[in-house]
Amino acid sequence: MRFRLLVGAGALVLLFTPLQWAAGQTAKSKKTTAASAAPASARIWKSETTGKEFRVWTEKGVFHAEWVNVPPALTKGGAYIRSELRRTGTKWSGTSQLRLPCESVENNKPVSNWCSLETKMEIDSVSASRITGRGESLKRFDCRTCKMLETGWAGFEWVPKEQKAGGSKR
Asked: What does pTM read for this prediction?
C-alpha cells in the first residue's frame, strides 16, 4: 500500500494513498472536553502544517488544545481532536485523543471505519507568536482493526489566527 503522511502534533492529519483520514468523536469516548468548557481567554491557533485551527488555553497546569474548524461532514460524525499536556521540565508532554474516519483499499476491497486513537504529543516552545513541538505520527495503520502498526514523530508549528479589533475573526 502506498501512502503519503503529513502530521502535526495534536493536529494529526494523514494523507494516505489510498488511505485517507479526517477526525471525529462518538458518545462512547472516554475523554471528552466540551468546547464550551474552554475559558474566554482561550486563543485560536492555526497549524502551519495542516491548516487545522485549535482553541488553546492553559488551566490548572494543563495545556489544552481542541480542533475548532472541523468540516461539517465530519461534525455530523462527531469529529474532534483534543490534546492535554502537562509541564515536564522545559516542555509540555501529553496525549491527543482523536477519532478518525478511515478509508482504504485492502485486497481490492474498500474498507471504511471510524477509529479512536490516542497519540503522544510534546510542545517545546510557547510564545505569543508561535507554538512548536512534535507529535506521534502514523507510518502504517490498519483501518479494519484501527491499529497503529508503525509510528514515528513529526514536528509542527502553530501561529495565532489573525483577528480583527474587538476579537472577531477575519
From this structure: 0.73
